[in-house]
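Anyone up for a design puzzle?
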């Protein structure tokens, strides 16, 4: 079972996405800010991280940079989740260490393709 760490501070977004992913057979852990996201990634070693970029305490860009700088977590793929949709925002997320990028509102099928590609799940 693929383990996903969802780092999202909006409770309703988090709840909705977590329930949808769990129904599809994913194991989903949550963190509500960049600091707790780093701690959870180090503790749980998820298969992929879904990282909101606009977070309290530490934003997703800085959290991604720190995760990619840490030998323990640098191999965990990170998909940025954000309402920022410009090409420069995408480039900034990739530069920070995110492996892919998905804009909100999320297209679940598109997100699932990215999760599968980054975790090497068999595409259905």
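Challenge accepted. My sequence:
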């Amino acid at each position: 079972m693929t383990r996903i760490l969802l780092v999202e501070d909006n409770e309703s977004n988090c709840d909705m996405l977590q329930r949808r992913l769990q129904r599809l057979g994913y194991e989903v852990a949550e963190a509500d800010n960049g600091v707790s996201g780093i701690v959870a990634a180090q503790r749980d070693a998820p298969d992929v991280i879904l990282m909101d970029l606009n977070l309290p305490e530490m934003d997703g860009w800085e959290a991604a940079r720190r995760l990619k700088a840490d030998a323990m977590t640098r191999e965990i793929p990170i998909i940025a989740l954000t309402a920022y949709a410009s090409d420069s925002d995408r480039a900034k997320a990739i530069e920070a260490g995110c492996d892919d990028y998905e804009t909100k509102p999320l297209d679940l099928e598109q997100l699932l393709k990215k999760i599968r590609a980054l975790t090497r799940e068999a595409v259905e």
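A detail worth pointing out: The mean pLDDT is 94.
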